[in-house]
Amino acid sequence: MRVPIVAGNWKMHMTSGEAEQLARGILDSLDGTVRVEVVVCPAFTVLERVRKVLGDSPLKLGAQNLHWAEEGAFTGEVSAGMLLTCGCEFVILGHSERRTWFGESDTTVNQRLRAALGAGLKPIVCVGETIEERQSGATEPVVRRQVTAAFKGVPAPDAAGCVVAYEPVWAIGTGLTATPSQADAVHTSIRRVMRELYNDNVARAVRLQYGGSVKPENAADLFNRPDIDGGLIGGASLEPDAFAAIVKAAV
Ligand code: 13P
Fold first, then answer.
1. Closest of 166, 204, 213 to residue 185, by C-alpha
2. How far is the CA of 68 from the centre of ligand 1 (A)?
3. Which of 151, 212, 221, 231 is deepest in the core (most CB within 10 A)?
């Protein structure tokens, strides 16, 4: 049985005071009833502060990216070891905003993924097609290429512990959501790719999140699908009540 996982990607929002307030708000709204895995992923600058607010609650901390080197002359970058010392357990990798605006490629996503796993962080690997790719019928091959490249050289036991987030680029921050059946079809194909790359056990174990305009109103329909194990939430993760409602929809 896969434990559902809902993660909030706070993106480039929240100064330190705001982040602390948001983390407290989420804890209050969840009211202790956390029967799925819940992760919040704030900006690097507030990781430690949010860690303190989460305290010994079941909520987990994640970062939004990392660099693959252990340390070195990489101005502006952050290593896996640095994230671990801030209390991170998870890290988002290969988000489409990183791919679009900051030149991340399938190759660097793979480097980051291997570095995260080597350090003991749990990766949330993002994949997804653009609107042009969907309209030209290329969704499945694009997602297959991204998943295959990301997991190159990753051993099966490590792959089984990863989370893959399917985030159609056209659904991110647009209010357009993939329908539950559109999303589930891609999730099923991601599981098929994992089966081909590894084996049935890995394909069954890997958790697949949907991301892209998930709201309290559409979360339950998405999460009810057999191959959707939770969500990666952007905008709605900045509102404690909305995020808590989405978490409850995954229970
Ligand atoms: P929205 O929920 O704001 O569409 O963002 C999704 C996302 O990019 C999460 O990583």
1. 166
2. 24
3. 231
Per-domain residue ranges of the chain: 5-91+102-214+225-237
What residues contact residue 163 under an 8 Å CB cut-off, 6+ apart? Answer: 5, 7, 90, 122, 123, 124, 125, 206, 207, 208, 209
Whether residue 226 is predicted with pLDDT greater than 70 in this model: the reply is: yes
Residue of 37, 104, 133, 167 marked active site: 167
Cα–Cα–Cα angle for 242, 247, 248, rounded to 5 degrees: 95
Beta bridge partners of 5: 37, 230
**pTM check: above 0.85:** yes
**Phi, psi angle pair for 211, to nearest 5°:** -140, 145
Class of domain 5-91+102-214+225-237: alpha beta
